[in-house]
Amino acid sequence: MTETLVRAHQEQWARMVATLARRFGDLDLAEEAAAEAFATAVERWAVDGVPPNPGGWLTTTANRKAIDRIRRESKRDSLYREALMLSDVDPPEPLGAIDDDRLRLIFTCCHPALAMEARVALTLRMVGGLTVPEIARSFLVQESTMGQRITRAKAKIAAARIPYRVPSPHDLPARTTGVLAVLFLVFNEGYLATGPDTDPVRPGLTAEAIRLTRLVRTLLPEDGEVAGLLALMLLTEARRPARVAADGALVPLASQDRDAWDGALIDEGHRLVRERLASGAAPGRYQLLAAINAVHTDARDARDTSWPQVIALYDQLVRLDRSPIVALNRAVAVAEVDGPDVALASLDALGDALDGYHAFHATRAELLRRVDRRVESRAAYDRAIALAGNTAETAFLARRRDELRAT
């Protein structure tokens, strides 16, 4: 029963919240009713068994919970009457509108009236179904800070009467940047979950991010960054079957079984990258990241990777995005071309900015290992393990550290 409930949450949460938000026009009510439906399922399914259609049962229960809550709050009399009118028949959408509640919900959560951090966090919670602790780890902030951020964002939507709809064609381009940032973070959380008590990989979440990105692309088929993000997701998702070993440890790119990669996703991702290159337009951040992944997935063996090409692409990316994480990833490529000592020297400048980021210390540990600075390498592994949230990453880092101790 527990497994079915977990799967139902992954598959149905966004649908339920989005449908409730459209029907009742209240994000708080939608989230609370969905949560109450799952809480009821925990009690009822343990006694009555799992229903034949778990998603339908949850949706029906959530709708009833929402209407019951409205009945209890007299100040929402008008909303209650409207809800009853909508309970059986939904109003028709305008001709040509995309009929997807979750896409409407994304654009609502990513409205420019909200700060970018709030847009991302709110959508991860409302659409992705991530918990507040998971979102907090994604942003390297305290749980209480993230909880307040999400609460304020929902209050701002209600106070500003932000509409629950897909923007007009005229407004779509300006609204897309925040949506893409949200979808990218949702995908990343699915590809390698940050929580220690969650599955290391959550295919339902990556599939949802890809599906919604495809929908955004139907809205903006000529937008290079939408195509770039989709290509990036596809090329990354293609490697997922080889991402985690049988013992639950993370498998780094260089050690993955490339025969296990999804060839169809790679072909589609490469095709999108080629289309963008052929357009002649200057590439944006997601297009460059997709091109880097295309280089990696084009090599049948890790030793065949064109690292100079990877560095050249990172050099373009640095001009668009000067974040220390981009510099960290560039240093990994530099180590393959110029050697680990050169890469380590470049990491020294990033220590202050990335001291709380586990991947920084994991990268240092691997580079220190390659130059036989074992004591420092073990210390860096220890720091990375202390900061890493994902069980698969922790298992991999511990194994690499213990290999040093055994020699």
Explain what the structure shows:
The protein is mainly α. The protein has a domain at 2-86. The protein is 70% helix and 0% strand. It has 20 helices and no strands. The protein has helices at residues 2-24, 27-48, 54-72, 77-86, 101-109, 116-126, 132-139, 143-159, 172-191, 203-219, 224-237, 263-279, 285-298, 307-320, 324-338, 340-348, 351-354, 358-370, 374-387, 391-405.
List the helices and strands and how they pair.
Blueprint: H1 2-24, H2 27-48, H3 54-72, H4 77-86, H5 101-109, H6 116-126, H7 132-139, H8 143-159, H9 172-191, H10 203-219, H11 224-237, H12 263-279, H13 285-298, H14 307-320, H15 324-338, H16 340-348, H17 351-354, H18 358-370, H19 374-387, H20 391-405
Helix pairs in contact: 1-2, 1-3, 1-5, 2-3, 6-8, 6-9, 7-8, 9-10, 9-11, 10-11, 11-12, 11-13, 12-13, 13-14, 14-15, 15-16, 16-18, 18-19, 19-20
